[in-house]
Each structure stands twice: as structure tokens, then as C-alpha cells.
Amino acid sequence: MIQVIQGDITKLAVDAIVNAANSSLLGGGGVDGAIHRAAGPELVFECRMLHGCQTGDAKLTHGYNLPARYVIHAVGPVWRGGHNHESELLASCYRRALEIATERGLTSIAFPNISTGIYGFPKEKACPIAVETVQKFLEEQQTSVSDIRFVCFDEENYRLYREKVAESH
Ligand code: AR6
């Protein structure tokens, strides 16, 4: 049900990939830039109609030229030392993405390591929040989602996620 893989999230043919967006939803660097480039210019047209998104929340668009049918744009927190609700807001991103996928009846979803790039969230703190939030959701909620992939781009996240997911099996 939960898999850890290393690679480029824009290549995955899943029902939805999650984007690590900013609150404007109008694109940026990192995985957000890669998703917009691969999806093509129609993605930003649809994003403009959403009028942004609050930190900790998420919004869905089509995937356009991506192999994924949908993109769920989640806005992670900027790390500001750890006393500004960063952990709760990060957990909320994963939960909201799963709620939206459930509302749409989606089966497969792939997550990047939200906030651990440009937003500076320490990777060793973000990983258990992501994994435990997803596990808790699966335990507590009725959901159509049965295939969840954590897509790690860098080696450190890949190692952290493999260890964390293995320990809970
Ligand atoms: N596939 C999977 N993961 C990736 C890819 C990819 N193609 N490219 C990067 N990553 P970041 P954030 C990983 O910086 O920290 C943007 O400008 C990367 O190694 O993309 O949430 C937005 O517009 C890292 O582990 O997102 C926002 O302004 C993870 O994705 C801001 O950055 C997240 O890194 C969001 O910052």
C-alpha cells in the first residue's frame, strides 16, 4: 500500500501526483517548476482560476501533458525554526491531499517530500510526519486510495523514508 521510490515524480502514471507548491499556485522552482514544465502551459491557466491556496491546504487540477491524471497542489510551510506550527501545517498538507483524492475516488497518489527543498524543513523531521500522517489516515478514514508512493529525489530522503516505512511493517 505504501511504497518508497527514488526518481522524478513528473514521470509517474498515477491518478494524482502531489505538488510542493507555494500559496500563489502560479509555479516556482524545485518540483513545482518540474511539474509545470512537464504539464505544459495549460496548468498555470487552471491554477490562476484557483486564486491561491493557504499553507497546509491543497487544491486539485488536471494533469494536462503529465502521465498523471491530476495534480494536487499542496502548500507546505516554510521552516522558521520549528515553533511556528510547521509540523502541524506539514501534516495538514498530506491529510488534505488524501482527503481530496478520496473525494474524487482516486486510487493511486504520489507524494514528493514537501517543504524539504527550498522551504528548508529538516528532512529527518519531515519524514516521520509524512509517513505517520499517511498511515494514520489509512487507519482511520474510509478511502478509495490504495496505492501511495513517496517519491524521493535525493539520496538522504530516500534512505530516511525506506527506514521509516520498513520500521512500521
Ligand atoms: N520529483 C520529485 N521530487 C523532486 C523533484 C522531482 N522532479 N524536484 C525536486 N524534488 P522543493 P519545497 C524534491 O524545493 O521545499 C518552489 O519554488 C526536492 O529534492 O521543490 O516545498 C515552490 O513554488 C525536495 O526534497 O519544494 C515553492 O515556492 C522536495 O522535492 C517552494 O519551492 C521539495 O523541494 C516550495 O518549497
From TrEMBL:
InterPro entries: Macro_dom (IPR002589), Macro_dom-like (IPR043472). GO terms for molecular function: deacetylase activity. CDD domains: Macro_OAADPr_deacetylase. Residues 1-169 form the Macro domain. It comes from the Bacteria. It holds the Pfam family Macro. PANTHER family: GANGLIOSIDE INDUCED DIFFERENTIATION ASSOCIATED PROTEIN 2-RELATED, MACRO DOMAIN-CONTAINING PROTEIN. This is O-acetyl-ADP-ribose deacetylase.
